[in-house]
Design brief:
Blueprint: E1 6-8, E2 13-15, E3 18-21, H1 30-42, E4 47-49, H2 65-76, H3 78-81, E5 85-90, H4 102-116, E6 121-126, H5 135-147, E7 151-157, H6 161-168, E8 175-179, H7 188-191, H8 194-201, E9 204-207, H9 228-241, H10 245-254, E10 261-264, H11 269-276, H12 285-296
Parallel strand pairs: 3-4, 3-10, 4-5, 5-6, 6-7, 7-8, 8-9, 9-10
Antiparallel strand pairs: 1-2
Helix pairs in contact: 1-2, 1-11, 2-4, 4-5, 5-6, 9-10, 9-12
Amino acid sequence: MRTGPRRLGPSGVEIGPLALGLWRFTGTDVGQNAALIEAGLELGMNLVDIADVYGLDWGGTGFGACEENLGEVLRARPDLRDRMVLATKGGIVPPVPYNSGAAAMRSACEASLARLSTDRIDLYQVHRPDMFTHPAEVADTLDGLVADGLVGATGVSNYTPAQTRALSAHLDAPLVSTQPEYSAACLDALRDGTLDLCAETGLVPLAWSPLAGGRLMAQVGEDGGVRPELLATLDRLAEREGVDRAAVCIAFVLAHPTAPVAIVGTQQPERLEGLQAALGVQLDRNDVYDIVEASEGVPLP
């Protein structure tokens, strides 16, 4: 497991192995919100990942609410902006639902900049693929945002490998990241070619929901949609390593040789330190394959 920083493309921007995900960043207390951001930064979680659509759930007030909350923090604590790699996403336009057309994407990026109270987004990602916009049009928009200095680098989220390749073929400024769902309970990225594409091209995988939306924290015997043998395997490894189950889950995500970044979504500063314990977990080849077998419920051939 690689626990050192990851580099985002040719720019050489370094990010930590754990990132702070703000899809639940719906509280409006600026002091508390700033404390969460600062706690993450102190622990090396310098990639702060958000999206314009965050705020439509988790008790938010609507589209853009989480970006507005982060913007309030950055106005109150401008020193925090210089310490973070700020990542956001656009392309979901309820109730369309997806629009990556040129006008929509540029408008989305400019609106995010305003809500975030910043003049530059370090990593701008297409949130979900719009299958009815040609990738050449998406690429032209992303390249324009980079050329205009509004965006430092670009990435994709929830793209298939084929969709990523199609977009990459039209870009001047290369993609630096892809953001799949990946956890011990969701191995699609391991099986569908996403992580293989990262190995081939150097894309940094940013794994969202590394705790499977909390389902991996269910008690054994609860109906959380997770195989009990997976929970038992994780608990066995947690006991051996002297950490909690969450740390083992994060360590599994980090164990892939493409050096993924695990985006953690807790809104409790004290919980961030517990998740940081994942960096000290030692999973060998038998351990990770035990997790895969327990997750899929069948022995490997």
